[in-house]
């Protein structure tokens, strides 16, 4: 029996699920987990994130080309439909599925790791790399703007007026086009390369981002994240962020952003508690380890 973890990634999806997978795998060093990603590019540099084994497989339907019937699968993807999911529940032993949707219950033949739901066979939790809870360095970046790791439609450029004049540092994403990066670097006074991501999150007093994982990492650092909702993206994380008292901006509302930034030093965030062990223990108990 082998253990596989599939995280949906790509130039139209970003790396949030990959970053979550890397954080969880780091909390399970005793397990031999092979991470599967949708694209080959991030798989080729997965070791830089502490993931020893990673294979790019293009789409979720290719998992059986790697895994065998009776293997374990941790599934973090929005690609499946009910028929495909039923087949996977019969194929893997067990199937552990991630859900970000409020109100989504687990099926009889699976285990569930959820942002919101808990009960028998379910674990309510989210994963953050533990290094973000130990941020002892300088917070010498006042404001960082991280749109996300993907921007295939160049939406960031379309809405540059959202952050223009705020003297924000721009954190570049993984799937940006080369010419696009060059243009963006000319529009911002300072930029951070993809390889500087973790350091930038830790150093930024305020993080404005559409990446849910980045928002949670910033909060873990004790910094002040502001989440903005990208057009066409699921709003699954908004209830969680509101419960953590993280400001949420929608529709590129510049007035709302300015008001939030004006009062940001007085804003009281909920404490981010290190919870990876809860999720890791749930997985080990599910596997009878």
Index terms:
six-stranded parallel sheet; Rossmann fold; 289 residues; 10 helices; alpha/beta; 2 domains; globular
Q: What is the topology?
A:
Layout: E1 3-7, H1 16-26, E2 33-37, H2 40-43, E3 54-56, E4 72-76, H3 82-91, E5 95-99, E6 111-114, E7 122-124, E8 141-146, H4 155-158, E9 169-171, H5 178-187, E10 191-192, H6 197-203, E11 204-209, H7 212-220, E12 224-229, H8 238-243, E13 248-250, H9 254-262, H10 276-286
Please, could you describe this protein's structure?
The protein is an alpha/beta fold and 289 residues long. The chain has two domains: 3-127 and 276-286, Rossmann fold, CATH 3.40.50; 131-266, Rossmann fold, CATH 3.40.50. It is 28% helix and 19% strand. The protein contains ten helices and 13 strands. The chain has helices spanning 16-26, 40-43, 82-91, 155-158, 178-187, 197-203, 212-220, 238-243, 254-262, 276-286; strands at residues 3-7, 33-37, 54-56, 72-76, 95-99, 111-114, 122-124, 141-146, 169-171, 191-192, 204-209, 224-229, 248-250. Strands 3-2-1-4-5-6-7 form a seven-stranded parallel beta sheet, sandwiched between helices. A six-stranded parallel beta sheet has the order 10-9-8-11-12-13, sandwiched between helices. Strand 4 (72-76), helix 3 and strand 5 form a beta-alpha-beta unit. The radius of gyration is 19 Å and the shape is globular. The two termini are 13 Å apart. The model has no long low-confidence stretch (mean pLDDT 95).
